[in-house]
Amino acid sequence: MQAGNVHYRFDADLPATLAVFPLPAALLLPGGRMPLNIFEPRYLQMVDEAIAGSRLIGMIQPALDGTSLPNGEPALCMVGCIGRITSFAETGDGRYLISLQGVCRFRIVQELAVKTPFRQCRIAPFAADLSEDKAGGEVDRPALLRAFRTYLQANDLETDWESVSRADSTVLVNALSMMAPYGAAEKQALLEAPDLKTRAETLIAITEMALARENDDFGSSLQ
């Protein structure tokens, strides 16, 4: 099942409360697409209710320090990303296969006491994410592509460089951030970058640090 196109222009177009899906090292950014395999009963119910309503859920990471709440649930990072369910399919074994399209980031204002098995929060959307990003021209594309190409070569990975070269800067930065195989802290830093230029610079820095670590490990193994 495919969803029709919906364009969110103002924060008033978005709900004040949102079901949230905590998932470690998962990064959804505005305009990005994330496939999900849903199998836990409480998240199957979450998807059912989202499909019947706004089709929106909040992707967020558990707190990076591993803190737990008194009820045993993990504490949450304060910033996540709203995703709209744009495709939905059922499997024969009770799972849902869905695709989310990133709408905008949000900050948790308050987690709500709810009777649903899934968690819900009052949120404040990042309204600036809903407007066209004008900072794409400020991104240092050559440095970004150089760092990412070097990383792929160092790890014997491949990508479709023709598609990469055609992508505009906003799509390029967000797509590379989402596909980059980094950990939860790095993913959160990319999510919370205040603008596209800073996100690109953060991604370059993280990639260069990863390459430096790999070179150090390689050098150590030769000694």
Shape: globular
Helix content: 25-40%
Biggest sheet strand line-up: 1-3-4-5-6
How many separate helices? Answer: 6
State which percent range the strand residues make up.
Answer: 15-25%
| H/E topology pattern | EEHEEEEHHHHH
Q: How far is the N terminus from the C terminus?
A: 56 Å
Averaged pLDDT, please? 88
Major sheet description: 5 strands, mixed, barrel
Stretches where pLDDT is under 50 for at least 5 consecutive residues are 218-223
CA radius of gyration is 19 Å
What is the SS-derived class? alpha+beta
What is the tally of beta strands? Answer: 6
Structure commentary:
A hairpin with a 5-residue loop joins strand 4 (79-90) and strand 5. Mean pLDDT is 88; it is low at 218-223. The protein has a five-stranded mixed beta barrel. It has helices at residues 41-52, 141-154, 161-166, 169-179, 184-192, 196-222; strands at 17-22, 33-38, 56-60, 79-90, 96-111, 119-125. The protein is an alpha+beta fold and 223 residues long. It contains six helices and six strands. The chain starts with 16 loop residues before the first strand and ends with a helix. The chain is globular, with a radius of gyration of 19 Å.
